[in-house]
Amino acid sequence: MAEACTKIRLCSTDDVDWDSAIRVEEGDLILAVFNVNGVFYVTDDLCTHGPGSLSEGYLDGHTIECDFHNGAFDVRTGEVVTPPCMVPVKTYKVSIEDNSVLIEV
User: Fold this and answer.
1) What radius of gyration, in Å, describes the C-alpha atoms of the chain?
2) 96 near 102, Cβ under 8 Å?
3) CA triplet 34, 37, 39: central angle to 5 degrees?
């Protein structure tokens, strides 16, 4: 039997400009919410390589470059795109309801 998912509202779609990101803290989660050409993605905000904040990084298409060591991840999958990062960043399933960005946890 599958576990029930809980949806958490993170922000309004209007809170995240096109082709940019914001940091959202919700409970124990510290997340980066990305808007790539009107499509929203959510990852953990902390880079897996060091103390960098991905929401403060450089977004280029679906690639977020950490502002600390310049490693990069694909915001769609969390996979590493550029070293020195080696461990993927956690991503979350996103849904949009009533202009709100929600994730499943």
Assistant:
1) 13
2) yes
3) 55
Rounded Cα distance, 56 and 14, in Å: 18
Give the closest residue to 75 by CA, choosing from 101, 105, 47, 49. 47
Cβ(100)–Cβ(12) below 8 Å: yes
Which residues have C-beta within 8 Å of that of residue 1, sequence separation ≥ 6? none
Close Cβ partners of 2 (under 8 Å, ≥ 6 residues apart) = none
Q: What is the pLDDT along the chain (105 residues), one digit of tens a residue?
A: 566 789 999 999 999 999 999 999 999 999 999 999 999 999 999 999 888 999 999 999 999 999 888 899 999 999 999 999 999 999 999 999 999 999 999
Domain architecture of the chain: domains with CATH = 7-104 (2.102.10.10)
Contacts of 44 (CB under 8 A, 6+ apart): 29, 30, 31, 32, 54, 89, 90
